[in-house]
Fold this sequence. Notes:
This protein is 23% helix and 23% strand. The chain has helices at residues 84-97, 112-123, 164-175, 195-198, 201-208; strands spanning 2-6, 15-19, 27-33, 68-72, 100-110, 130-134, 150-155, 182-187.
Amino acid sequence: xxxEVCNDGSAIFPYIARLPKEMKHGLPLIVLLHGAGExxxxxxxxxxxxxxxxxxxxxxxxxEYDCVLIQPQCKxxxxxAAHVQEIGQFIKDMIKKYDIDESRVYLTxxxxxxxxxxxxxxxxxxxxxxxxxxxxxxMPWNAGMLSMPVWAFHGDKDDLVLPSNSIDxxxxxxxxxxxxxxxxxxxxxxxxNAWDYAYNKELYDWLLSHKRA
Length: 213
């Protein structure tokens, strides 16, 4: 894969993309929202923080995958949950720029990005084929807005973002009658680093197995 840095102000958020060496029409898109520790101004010295956690260790530059991975950077003084509308427009822009298959768009995020994933999916439920929030939380009272498959992760020893944030979301979804398309891994003995266990080939394959009708 190749690594493309876009921090020239041409996009709503500065971002790093991982792209196949030979781009083609109709690739799937994964958007990954980082945590609070990876925020920055998008400059060359800090933009790389968005790759510290997540799928970058799977979608390595030494291998080829038929997908586009986009990792935007949130400003230091803000949160993803405060920019849901901008995230939605940013993803629409990425779909157009990279000629993405609109039925295969996926959203994931960790910690602050996990909250951003839940919130954005609730605001734009028609946009995503599947989502994977990691140690985040959302608005259980709005769970009915979510119709796409969900795979959530949380460490049961997380004392920074309490596991109840994810548990309450999953309970609310299942109360809506959702079945096997809602998955939840409560990771035994794991603290606020559930991303170390979530982002692997299994999750990657699970996301890409879904297609929005």
